[in-house]
Amino acid sequence: MICGSMAFSKEMLETQKTLEEIGHKALVPVDTVECIENPGLNMDLEHCISTQVDKKCFDLIAESDAILVLNHEKNGIKGYVGGATLMEIGIARHLNKKIFLLHNLPTEEEQRYVLEIKATEPTVLDGDLTKIGPGANKKI
Questions:
Q1: How many domains does the chain have?
Q2: Residue 92 domain-assigned?
Q3: In this predicted model, what pLDDT tens digit does every residue of 5-54 receive, in sequence order?
Q4: Residue 72 belongs to domain spanning
């Protein structure tokens, strides 16, 4: 399951394609295409509640072998991880899923819950998706 801020929706689809090219099955949040078409949709509480997008994403995490967090720069923070993504990391940790971060995390001064993310022992890919390893139909 590819996780991250929905501001990175376009990048999620690009990453999905790349992962599938190297042999993985990659899942994206259920409203990824809609968030590309309507960038403010992910901040629409009514949309989030009516579609239960959080629960659907948690279900996709449960189906996956691992999660990949797209933690690109956002709001001037390199390695940004938002609140919803933090919850997804917690779910993945609870379900004993492998956790990959595309980039290094920001400092704890830049984002207060970096310690909690580090405690999940994620693998940082330094921007290189091939570090996930051979596909063999791994579901991400």
A1: 1
A2: yes
A3: 989 999 999 999 999 998 899 999 988 888 788 777 777 788 888 888 89
A4: 2-132
List strands edge to edge, sheet with 98-101: 2-4, 66-70, 98-101, 123-124
- State how far the alpha carbon of 112 is from the alpha carbons of 17, 82, 98, 116, in Å: 32, 11, 23, 9
Q: Is residue 40 part of a domain?
A: yes
Decide: 5 and 32 in contact? Cβ < 8 Å. no
Cβ neighbours around 6 below 10 Å, total:
21
Question: What do you get for the CA distance between the two ends of the chain, in Å?
Answer: 4
Long-range pairs for 91-95 at CB < 8 Å and ≥24 separation? Answer: 91/58, 91/61, 91/62, 92/1, 92/61, 92/66, 92/67, 92/120, 93/120, 95/61, 95/62
> Any long-range contacts for 46-50 (C-beta under 8 Å, 24+ apart)?
none
Return d(Cα 53, Cα 92) in angstroms, integer.
16
